Backbone:
């Protein structure tokens, strides 16, 4: 069946995604814009640094599949409904069996004389934003015409560009549709406090040449009330109009004030033509939000799929009573942050329902305004307005959508919690299974509960499985509440199982491996697990085997459990190339070795960068180049830096007493000693260390898993520090240690962590979670309270004694070298890896820059 | 009219380390070929899907870890860890990232052959 989709906007694209699994549909997509679908909802993030590529909604390779033909810069200009042809602007035609109009809408620009002056812009496409940015750079003052949702978002963009910003609104208040008078007043005050000037009840009568010579008054806006405003650029955001011109010119039924009329199946008056998204008119309404559009896309996708299966049109659902997927309207409730102000509007926000009653709460000091609209019998919530604070949006929305009976005192839902008394909330248990929790992705409470019952017992797993909370994120807190409530009901307490294959924590697994003398993943799986294993338990067990027995990760029997980084002994990069990090102990390096690194990079054309860990990373190596690169490095005396492993990374040092006038100990010497002692050590997560030569702490040792700081008398030992996502200051474990004691304490500390740490748990979180905390660790390490200190030291010494450089071993083992090639049956390199020059070095081509032809 | 299927010789079964993959050139396509072996050591067949991983747009699937997810045999992309069913190419996280499966066969003397699509 030939399907033509006009428009590849958000909704049109959703439709394509829904039917992507149906190669029997022969689809042509006409996209007027120069690029395929992107995320208009997050368009303003373009100003905070997102690129067009970041905003793209198109999964890589999506349009490469057979039977899906995307035409960019292809505007449809006519529909011949008798011949079933769509005419394009370039004169060509495309035939269809079924046609979907997903043409969206255009920004309405009021017919004000002067509106075509340069610098008068709109706000809908990436090109519009590029123009705004260009004009913003040469302007001082900016005006937004329209004080609705989009207008205020646009005002933020102008403000962020540093312009004196004005909002001009025709109505007496801001956000007329969503908020009421009092809410609008508060919103205005808050926005003005941020430095945006708001003009309400202003009707622009013309735009003329301003007095400013160049910047600072290029235009003058003249208002009907006689006032005027000088500005350099104007953005119109005065509402949207459906792009219904194609339907109109081909005689399809339209709404009185525009919009393509559709029924519950999203069919237009021509049964072979559907309309979805912002161009469609349902029940006399245009839905200017993306979620209803997505619903429409799903409705049409379902019909197309049945049709293409060859079922007769007659068998199609026709009547309203049909059980097939239908579009039956949409909730227009919204929650937004506009210029940093929380604003939410639910259902009948204006109290238009006859007999409805209001509860109002206003706190002008804190700047909060809340209103509930309830039914005449005070039993159901009809609508709400929240300005300044909108935390309760999620639960109020559920009350309204599911007609959950209100508590005896509905006002408590919006009154601030009194000290001591907990706030009347809505237990998620009250929600029916049909309650829509994530409207972006159409996930109900029932669907969430089902997924939880089937084993998605973390937020991450739930997101993955149901897609809830993966778009706007607004439903996140509610998803979490449902999850917590369900887990509580199930009496779940233990959640530290490695994965579906092992019902043990990493600590238990470590113990089982040691006690059972298990030496391979298969042995561990047969003894304690089920199934085949996965990408979670395999590397975890691999790491345990390495910590327990120090077996070379390259041994064939361990090969299949290694992550690609450990498999190729290098760090995988986004384009499938790898990076190479030779060890530079303590950050100390001779000029000769620096030259070697430079030569190797030159010879293989690699990108070089100094890392945050005091060493040098070489990027852009292909698998087949890795052994050659390492041959050169090993010959010059370099060793693996284990940047690819959950292992010791670097021991950072400061220059210390040898050169520094304040240094009290030789920190470089100690750093090198420590790095060489623990190099290659496999652990639950990576380990970083540092040694500073005095209390000024130039090596930042207190941000490391193990930090050593010199004192007049010896060394202070710190543990459990972390930079990264959640920085943590290290805890002082012992003071004024001599060299030998320092090393013995580090041995004990590390082995204890390796034995008991969880998978991917840094020492910082391990310290935070270990029962007894710092005191326990201190006693175990410094006082041997567990009576295992000698054992821990002996285990570590064994690992130190059996260390070997993985790369040196690899390049001397022909069996291992075999894996370093891209194709098993050809010498060719991967042609999909492509670079360009940037600042004198290579960089990988981005997905969009790559020629799709080169994929294969 | 369809032409007679073209089968490309990839390598011997023994050339693939149990439960890992290799990448093969099959016509113009890059194909990830995996050899499955049970924990007990019995050979459990050979599977082939695209080597191209749509989410990262990189040719890397042959380098992923093989395992199972709720009983389904999958490979995890080494880049973003999304999973692909080895039988169908379906991506478990998001079907729009799914890839193509290929017909694969092992000859009596242990040669792996993949059919061009
Ligand atoms: C290359 C480097 C950035 C650079 O150009 O400077 C880097 C690169 C990566 N870092 Fe890092 N980190 C690098 C220094 C750091 C530092 C600074 C430091 O070590 O002093 C930190 C903060 C310190 C810390 O870890 O406490 C750091 C905190 C992280 C984190 C967050 C860890 C955390 O506990 O919060 C991650 C994510 C993770 O490990 O889960 C990460 C993960 C990564 C990964 C592995 C992400 C990935 O999976 O691709 C990057 C790949 C490394 C590679 O070589 O391809 N990187 N990363 C630095 C390598 C240092 C080295 O010589 O080995
Ligand atoms: C700045 C901004 C912020 C927004 N914020 C939100 C928000 O927070 N929440 C929310 O729910 N919604 C928001 N929206 C609205 C949301 O973006 C729209 O509801 C959604 O994009 C509608 O999708 P669509 O596919 O119907 O239309 P569009 O995304 O506009 O796509 C229509 C496409 O069709 C193309 N087209 C039109 N005519 C033709 C033709 N003749 N031939 C070929 N192609 C054609 C157009 O060029 C366009 O690419 C926002 C919109 C904007 C502009
Ligand atoms: S930490 Fe001390 S010794 Fe090291 S560089 Fe700083 S001041 Fe000098
Ligand atoms: S409601 Fe937007 S992600 Fe769930």
Residues:
């Amino acid at each position: 069946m030939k399907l033509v989709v006009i428009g590849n906007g958000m909704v049109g694209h959703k439709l394509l995604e829904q039917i992507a699994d149906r190669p029997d549909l022969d689809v042509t997509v006409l996209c007027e814009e120069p690029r395929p679908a992107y995320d208009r909802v997050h368009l303003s993030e373009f100003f905070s640094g997102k690129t067009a590529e970041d905003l793209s909604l198109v999964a890589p390779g999506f349009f490469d599949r057979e039977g899906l033909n995307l035409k960019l810069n292809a505007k449809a200009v006519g529909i011949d409904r008798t011949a079933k042809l769509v005419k394009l602007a370039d004169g060509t035609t495309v035939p269809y069996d079924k046609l979907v109009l997903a043409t969206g809408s255009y920004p309405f620009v009021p017919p004000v004389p002067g509106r075509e002056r340069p610098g008068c812009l709109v706000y809908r496409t990436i090109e519009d934003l590029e123009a705004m940015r260009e004009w913003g750079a040469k302007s001082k003052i900016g005006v937004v015409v329209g004080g609705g949702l989009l207008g205020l978002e646009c005002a933020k963009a102008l403000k962020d560009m540093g312009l004196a910003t004005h909002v001009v609104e025709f109505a007496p208040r801001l956000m007329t549709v969503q908020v009421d008078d009092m809410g609008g007043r508060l919103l205005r005050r808050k926005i003005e406090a941020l430095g945006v000037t708001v003009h309400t009840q202003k009707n622009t009568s013309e735009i003329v040449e301003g007095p400013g010579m160049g910047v600072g008054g290029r235009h003058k806006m003249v208002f009907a009330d006689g006032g005027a405003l000088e500005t350099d650029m104007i953005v119109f955001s005065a509402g949207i109009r459906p792009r219904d011109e194609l339907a109109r010119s081909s005689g399809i039924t339209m709404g009185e004030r525009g919009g393509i009329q559709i029924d519950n199946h999203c069919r237009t008056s021509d049964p072979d033509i559907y309309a979805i998204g912002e161009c469609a008119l349902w029940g006399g309404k245009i839905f200017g939000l993306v979620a209803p559009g997505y619903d429409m896309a799903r409705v049409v996708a379902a019909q197309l799929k049945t049709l293409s299966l060859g079922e007769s049109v007659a068998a199609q659902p026709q009547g309203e009573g049909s059980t097939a997927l239908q579009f039956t309207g949409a909730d227009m409730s919204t929650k937004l942050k506009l210029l940093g102000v929380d604003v939410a509007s639910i259902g009948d926000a204006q109290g238009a329902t006859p007999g409805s009653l209001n509860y109002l709460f206003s706190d002008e000091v804190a700047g909060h305004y809340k209103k509930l609209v309830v039914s005449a019998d005070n039993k159901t919530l009809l609508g709400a307005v929240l300005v300044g604070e909108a935390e309760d949006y999620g639960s109020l929305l559920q009350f309204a959508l599911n007609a959950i009976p209100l508590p005896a005192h509905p006002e408590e839902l919006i009154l601030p919690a009194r000290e001591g008394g907990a706030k009347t909330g809505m237990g998620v248990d009250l929600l029916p299974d049909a309650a829509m929790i994530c409207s972006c992705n159409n996930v109900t409470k029932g669907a969430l509960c089902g997924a939880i019952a089937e084993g998605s017992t973390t937020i991450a797993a739930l997101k993955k499985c149901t897609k809830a909370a993966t778009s706007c994120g607004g439903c996140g807190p509610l998803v979490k509440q449902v999850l917590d409530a369900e887990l509580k009901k199930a009496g779940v307490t233990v959640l530290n199982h490695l994965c579906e294959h092992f019902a043990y924590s990493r600590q238990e697994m470590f113990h089982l491996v040691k006690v059972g003398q298990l030496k391979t993943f298969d042995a561990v799986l047969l003894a304690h697990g089920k199934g085949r294993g996965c990408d979670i338990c395999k590397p975890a067990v691999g790491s345990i085997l390495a910590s327990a027995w120090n077996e070379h990760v390259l041994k064939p029997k361990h090969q299949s459990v290694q992550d690609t980084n450990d498999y190729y002994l290098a760090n995988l990069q986004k384009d499938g190339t790898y990076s190479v990090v030779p060890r530079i102990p303590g950050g100390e390096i001779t000029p000769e070795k620096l030259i070697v690194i430079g030569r190797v990079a030159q010879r293989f054309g690699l990108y070089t960068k100094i890392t945050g860990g005091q060493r040098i990373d070489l990027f852009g190596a292909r698998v087949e180049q890795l052994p050659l690169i390492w041959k050169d490095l090993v010959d010059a005396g370099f060793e693996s830096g284990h940047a690819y492993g959950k292992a010791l990374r670097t021991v950072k040092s400061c220059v210390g007493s040898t050169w520094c006038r304040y240094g009290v100990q030789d920190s470089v010497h100690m750093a090198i000693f420590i790095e060489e002692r623990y190099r290659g050590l496999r652990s639950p997560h990576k380990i970083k260390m540092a040694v500073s030569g005095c209390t000024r702490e130039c090596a930042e040792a207190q941000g490391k898993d193990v930090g050593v700081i010199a004192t007049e008398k010896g060394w202070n030992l710190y543990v459990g520090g972390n930079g990264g996502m959640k920085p943590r200051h290290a805890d002082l474990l012992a003071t004024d240690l001599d060299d030998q004691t320092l090393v013995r304490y580090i041995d004990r500390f590390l082995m204890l962590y390796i034995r008991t740490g969880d998978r991917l748990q840094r020492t910082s979180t391990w310290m935070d979670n270990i029962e007894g905390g710092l005191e326990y660790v201190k006693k175990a390490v410094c006082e041997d309270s567990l009576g295992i200190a000698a054992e821990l030291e002996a285990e570590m010494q064994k690992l130190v004694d059996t260390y070997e450089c993985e790369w040196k071993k690899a390049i001397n083992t022909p069996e291992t070298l075999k894996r370093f090639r891209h194709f098993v049956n050809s010498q060719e390199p991967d042609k999909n890896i492509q670079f360009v020059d940037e600042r004198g070095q290579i960089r990988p081509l981005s997905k969009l820059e790559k020629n799709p032809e080169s994929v294969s | 009219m369809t032409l007679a299927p073209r089968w490309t010789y990839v390598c011997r079964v023994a050339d693939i380390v149990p439960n890992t993959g290799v990448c093969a050139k099959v016509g113009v396509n890059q194909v990830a070929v995996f050899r499955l072996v049970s924990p007990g050591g019995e050979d459990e067949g050979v599977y082939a899907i695209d080597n191209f991983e749509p989410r990262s747009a990189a040719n890397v699937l042959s380098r992923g870890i093989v395992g199972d997810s709720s009983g389904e045999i999958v490979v995890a992309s080494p880049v973003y860890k999304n999973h692909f069913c080895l039988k169908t190419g379906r991506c478990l996280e998001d079907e729009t990232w799914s890839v193509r499966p290929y017909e694969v066969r092992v000859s009596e003397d242990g040669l792996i052959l993949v059919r061009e699509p």
Chain B has one domain: 16-100. Chain B has a mean pLDDT of 91.
